[in-house]
Structure formats: structure tokens, C-alpha cells
Amino acid sequence: MTSPQPPTSGIAVLQRLMSRPKPAGESCEMCGEPVGPTHSHVVRLDQRKLMCTCRGCALLFTNSGAAQGRYRAVPDRVVSDPDFQFDLTRWDQLAIPVGLAFLFTNSNLGQTVAFYPSPAGATESELNAESWAEIGQDTPLLAELEPDVEALLLRRTDDGVLCYLVPIDICYELVGLVRTYWKGFAGGDEVWAAVDELFERVATRSRPYPRG
Description:
The radius of gyration is 19 Å and the shape is globular. The strands form two sheets. The chain has a seven-stranded mixed beta sheet. A three-stranded antiparallel beta sheet has the order 2-1-3. A hairpin with a 2-residue loop joins strand 6 (111-118) and strand 7. Helices cover 29% and strands 24% of the residues. It contains seven helices and ten strands. With 212 residues, the protein is α+β, with helices and mostly antiparallel strands. It has helices at residues 10-19, 55-59, 88-94, 129-133, 141-144, 168-181, 189-205; strands at 40-44, 49-53, 71-73, 79-80, 100-106, 111-118, 121-124, 150-156, 161-167, 207-208. The chain has two domains: 10-73, no CATH class; 79-208, no CATH class.
């Protein structure tokens, strides 16, 4: 009679999956299985790294305590706040040169941090956390964020400031678009067309926050 094998820890399973040879082309960064253009993501928290994964591997890390908290699956919800009101004079005081910003809670730091996309990549806002936290007085979405994997995405328009709760991978995508397509001083038509397209997708996916 074969003796029962000891249970395998989540870390051991992860190490085994990640040690498998990966096929050429786009594939899961954990198990090596092929993934399509639309796929799941997992954040490796100690490196602030976004990993492309298959749906199965992402499901392993939906719980914040999985893998000793080193990895966390990125959710897919998008929530809008149609009632968000933010005075444009206050926005100017934030000194965000591109009219775009995103905030998320960094669990390693234990605080909310703010960045904006720039031609050099994601640039941290020079304002302190307290200045950005005031936005929480204007929208409940800031308090709804899941640490590390969701962000509050803001965009200044001629009519005001748009506000969405988004998966953090959308912010990575936005940073990549600005870094790739930015030209000259103002960015150029190509980058703003790409940004417009991203926000159209966000608006289509979003569901309004149920205030009251």
C-alpha cells in the first residue's frame, strides 16, 4: 500500500509551474500555457511587476492570502462615478501636466500613492498623500479600491474631471501608450487618439457606483 503523500504547499506548486519551459509566443508567465490577446494578469507585489497569466493561474491568487501574499490577481471590474465633482482650479493645483492621473493603495507602503503617465513612464506626483486623499471626500470610489490591484483613474476634460475605478492593468496600458506614442511638447494627435480609445473602452465596460 502506498503511503499518502504530504500536501503540496501553494508556493511549491507555483515554483513548479514557473520552472516549466515556456513555448514561443504569448504565454502565461506562470504555467507557460498559451494565452490570447485578452488574458488575465497577476501582480507580483514585491517587485511591483504585472504578469500575464491564463485564467486558471489567475484564479489561484484571487485571495489576498494566497502564496503568502506575494501575488495578487487583478480583478476586472470597472466602476464609474457620474456624480463626481472636482473643481478644475483644484485640479490645476495638483500640477499634473498631461491631464491624467491614477491613484492606488500600495500595501507595502501602507498608503495611497499617485502617478501620472509621461513620456518617461509612470511619474510619481510630488504632492503628498494627504493632498490626493482629499479626493476621497468627493468620491466613494477611492475607499473602494482593492490594494495593489485596482486604481482610481482620473482624466481632465473641458467639462470637468472623469473618475473611474479600474483594474491596475489599465493604468499600465495607459502608461505604455503615452510612453510609446508621445511626440514633441504636447504629445501629438496619435497619442491622444490612443488615450481617447482607451477611455472609450473604459466607459463601455463601466457600471455606475450605486450612491445612496
